[in-house]
Design goal:
This protein is 41% helix and 16% strand. The chain has helices at residues 45-57, 79-96, 108-116, 133-140, 165-182, 202-210, 212-216, 230-236, 245-257, 268-286; strands spanning 5-8, 11-14, 19-25, 38-39, 42-43, 62-66, 100-104, 121-124, 144-147, 190-193, 223-224, 262-265. An eight-stranded parallel beta sheet has the order 10-9-8-7-6-3-12-11. Helix 3 runs parallel beside helix 4 (133-140) and helix 9 runs parallel beside helix 10 (268-286). It binds ligand 7PJ. The site of ligand 7PJ has 15 residues, from strand 9.
């Protein structure tokens, strides 16, 4: 059984029920909410503040900020660009709100600087495979989320291939986990994520989704991010990612039912309502 809480610096993340991680994209080109925090070509702190305030009021337990777009085909950002996007917003959140902040990054220097500025969690879609990342994460002492991705964002959706997607992704995460432990990261600080949409066909994503319980069986908290992703668009035939709300909320509940500990979502209010109703019914069943 996984622990029911996760120590994140001076705060504790309650995992006795699914935690909601609200997404704040600091990129001008994210696939579903790209550029909403920009005023012209400049990231607007006042716009960010409004969005973050709403996410927290809506019930997010964690705010996930990221300065690199990892959507299929996205161009790479420089370290400086990433730092310029992430650090001011991180400082803003830490100084104004009593929340957990996760930093979505693969870049060692961003991990270090974000740790110095008060981040609570490192969320890496490359599972600390970039140079210096594992050392930076280990030195931070923060919990880390290790996500599976086949290839790189630029190429990951070109005919992804697996022998057995569940076995392969589980093996990858087990191997990254071991590398983390060897680098000095405590096992109880490791979160695992199958990486929905990262180098996976619809069939791969659905097979993995149905196997969430196998990831949960590892004993680590499992993070699931399917919000507004193409897999939902493909199931429903909806091109426009901003119109994938119902599918996203439904999948969040299904993920929670399969044991996911953290749900990474765009639509915090709607997801929280759905999870609250589901939780109420579980408690009723147990009466
Ligand atoms: C994920 C992520 C995910 C984790 C993104 C998007 C693409 N981090 N960062 N898991 N996805 N841990 O939001 O659609 O699934 S960026």
């Amino acid at each position: 059984m996984s622990a029911l809480s996760l120590k994140c610096r001076d705060k504790v993340l309650d995992l006795s029920r699914p935690a909601i991680m609200g997404i704040v994209n600091l990129t001008p080109d994210s696939f579903s909410d790209g550029g909403q925090l920009y005023a012209g070509s400049k990231l607007s702190q006042s716009k960010a503040l409004v969005v973050i305030e709403k996410i927290l009021k809506d019930g997010a337990n964690i705010v996930d900020i990221g300065g690199e777009s990892t959507r299929p085909g996205a161009t790479e950002v420089s370290e400086q660009q990433e730092l310029d996007r992430v650090l001011p917003i991180l400082e803003l959140i830490v100084s104004r709100f009593d929340t957990l902040v996760s930093v979505d990054t693969s870049t060692a220097v961003v991990m270090r600087e974000a740790t110095a500025k008060g981040a609570h969690l490192i969320n890496d879609v490359r599972a600390l495979r970039r140079e210096g990342a594992i050392e930076a994460a280990a030195q931070s002492g923060l919990p880390v989320c290790l996500m599976h991705m086949q290839n790189q964002p630029q190429t990951m959706q070109f005919e992804p291939v697996y022998q057995d997607v569940v076995v392969d992704v589980l093996a990858f995460l087990a191997s990254r986990k071991q590398d983390c432990i060897d680098a000095g990261i405590a096992a109880e600080k490791i979160i695992l994520d199958p990486g929905f949409g990262f180098g996976k066909t619809l069939a791969h994503n659905l097979t993995l989704f149905n196997a969430i319980d196998q990831f949960v069986a590892s004993g680590h908290p499992v993070l699931v991010g399917v919000s507004r992703k193409a897999m939902i668009g493909q199931v429903l035939g909806i091109e426009d990612s901003s119109k994938r709300l119902i599918g996203s909320v439904m999948m969040a509940v299904l993920a929670a039912q399969r044991g996911a500990a953290i749900l990474r979502v765009h639509d915090v209010l709607e997801t929280k309502q759905a999870i609250d109703v589901w939780q109420t019914m579980i408690i009723k069943e147990e009466d």
